[in-house]
Write a structure and sequence with these properties.
about 575 residues; alpha/beta; 8-stranded mixed beta sheet; globular; binds phosphoenolpyruvate; binds magnesium ion
Length: about 575
């Protein structure tokens, strides 16, 4: 099995989708169309513009064809990505800028389109948020498709492999990933891409092991080489030696054994040994994540981040478009409930259509609910769309970054206005729709008792709550050692929030990353959380430990954890307890 050309070279990049794959390489040509800029005469301008618009039409026809094929193969769930690409294709900036460049600079259409792409990339490069920065990859993929249509270059299918193989490509588009036939393609690695690129998200949703962002991997690997890829750690080994090969084979078997064991828990209740039921739900940004969420036994969506619909475009989505997107999510998740969060943008989450000014302190700036309240013309259509969705299935609505009572009252007044409009227009919605707030600002923790009287549930966003409580920028790589979920200040805050919620008879949920860490489960259970929402892949790991915990013991453990003075003390206590009580749960 091991190639004669053994050299056991190890590369490390971004683990985009967990799982280990071992097999021969198939290089898939996804090289860029080479563009040469040439001047054109004024008389040639109309023909060049026509070449560009014809290519747009051809690219659109291709995408619609792929969409139809995928609809038959996978059903409607993964089509959002193709829709996103269709939207980019029709983006007015892409369209107008390119035509304007052809007309005014008088260059060929390919070069004009490349110039527009460069402008897009410059805009995106300034964005702090990693997820948003990576959206420029989507624009690039769409532009490549248009360029191929212009020069008449066709592409071989991702499934053109003999037997089973690992695909190595410069880049794979989301459409490529969607088209992968898993009985042939057992994993992929690419030069480009990031953890939150659409292709990576889809690889996770479809459970295809993948490592991305290797930069020059296509130059270092040839057809027929043997590759090991570990999609959890981001390690790629080229032509492994016997020892490495055996080692990874064992890891692969162990990983697959664990996955199979975890999957046995999928339909078992999320219940402690003393009979306490906790709700375990998923965080979702794209509709295509729902398949994986259901596959891991998620009992609903505890956080649906709506901002994805607003990125990458000049015009904001109107009420109808939002209603259609939210309703798709609710139908896909039925009969389980969906908790929809209103727009959480501003600061470094850049939305062109909102015309936001630069800010000195974006994390403390005009973002999330503050922005929505400032722009009712954007907020109201979203509220109406969410309300209308509540007639399609079970929906709850909640608001990000609420800092105090006045703010939530202002939100409720607008929500009431939206409800009244719908009643007048005879449009149905759930009159009993529950409303909640994210608890992610220290002031909201301190007045949690007052806020609890205003809403039906709390959901703690620990990603921001830790950032604001400890004054640690969550995106600053130099501060990661100070970002401590077990900091006594964080644990005390969590206790205050749960106690305030329960004193008022409302649910305490958590949807920050802390909820998906199995090692923290005993504390969260002991503090009294009713619901945890997390990434789909964490669900069964959390459920496994939950099913081994007793709630009464967890309460004692949480009370003890609250007595320590530092995060390190809490952590070593927790590790000791977990090793002693739930030894098997941590591998
Ligand atoms: C959080 O802050 O914990 C959260 C879930 O919201 P986001 O990560 O979208 O800011
Ligand atoms: Mg947040």
């Amino acid at each position: 099995m091991v190639s004669a050309k053994t050299n056991n070279r190890e590369l490390t990049a971004i683990g985009a989708s967990p799982g280990i794959a071992i097999g021969p390489v198939r290089i898939t040509d996804r090289s860029r169309v080479a563009v040469v800029e040439t001047e054109i005469a004024p008389i040639e301008v109309p023909a060049e513009v026509a070449r560009f618009t014809n290519a747009l039409d051809a690219a659109e026809a291709e995408l619609r064809g792929i969409k139809r094929e995928l609809e038959t193969a996978h059903g409607p769930e993964h089509l959002y990505v193709i829709d996103a690409h269709l939207m980019i294709l029709r983006d007015s900036m892409l369209f107008r800028e390119t035509i304007e460049t052809i007309e005014t600079v008088r260059i060929n259409a390919e070069a004009a389109l490349k110039r527009t792409l460069l402008k897009f990339k410059e805009l995106f490069a300034e964005i702090g948020d990693e997820y948003l920065r990576e959206r420029s990859g989507d624009v690039e993929t769409v532009v490549e498709r248009v360029l191929r249509c212009m020069v008449g270059k066709s592409q071989e299918s991702v499934n053109a492999v003999e037997g089973m193989a690992i695909i190595v490509a410069h880049d794979l588009s989301p459409a490529d990933v969607l088209q992968i036939d898993k009985s042939r393609v057992i994993g992929f690695v690419t030069d480009l891409g990031g953890k939150t690129s659409h292709s990576a998200i889809l690889a996770r949703a479809l459970e295809i092991p993948a490592v991305v962002g290797l930069e020059r991997v296509t130059a270092e690997i040839s057809d027929g080489d043997v590759l090991i890829i570990d999609g959890a750690t981001g390690v790629v080994v080229i032509n492994p030696d016997q020892q490495t090969f055996q080692d990874y084979l064992r890891r692969k078997q162990r990983y697959e054994y664990l996955e199979r064991e975890l999957l046995k828990l999928k339909d078992l209740p999320a219940e402690t040994t003393d009979g306490y039921r906790m709700l375990l739900k998923g965080n979702v940004e794209f509709i295509e994540e729902i398949t994986s969420l259901k596959g891991h036994g998620g009992e609903g969506i505890g956080l649906y981040r709506t901002e994805m619909l607003f990125f990458n475009r000049q015009e904001l989505p109107d009420e109808e478009e939002q209603f259609a997107a939210y309703a798709d999510v609710v139908r896909s998740m039925a009969p389980h409930p969906v908790t929809i969060r209103t727009l959480d943008v501003g600061g470094d989450k850049f939305v062109p259509g909102l015309n936001l000014a630069d800010e000195l302190n974006p994390a403390l700036g005009l973002r999330a609910i503050r922005l929505s309240l400032r722009q009712p013309e954007t907020f109201k259509p979203q509220l109406r769309a969410i309300l209308r969705t509540s007639a399609v299935g079970k929906v709850r609505i909640f608001f990000p970054m609420v800092s105090g009572v006045a703010e939530i009252r202002a939100v409720k007044a607008l929500l009431e206005e939206a409800k009244q409009e719908l009643r007048t227009e005879g449009i149905s919605f759930d009159e009993g729709i529950e409303i909640g707030i994210m608890i992610e600002i220290p002031s909201a923790v301190i007045v949690a008792d007052l806020l609890a009287r205003e809403v039906d549930f709390f959901s703690v966003g620990t990603n921001d709550l830790i950032q604001y409580s400890l004054a640690i920028d969550r995106t600053n790589e130099h501060l990661t050692h100070l970002y401590e979920p077990l900091h006594p200040a964080v644990l005390r805050s969590l206790k205050m929030v749960v106690d305030a919620a329960h004193a008022a008879g409302i649910d305490a949920c958590m949807c920050g990353e802390m909820a998906g860490e199995p090692g923290y489960l005993p504390i969260l259970l002991g503090l009294g959380f009713d619901e945890l929402s997390m990434n789909a892949v964490s669900l069964l790991r959390v459920k496994r430990i939950l099913r081994r915990c007793s709630r009464e013991e967890a309460k004692v453990l949480a009370a003890r954890a609250l007595t320590f003075s530092t995060a390190q003390e809490v952590e070593s206590f927790l590790k000791g307890e977990i090793a002693a009580r739930y030894a098997e749960s941590f591998d």
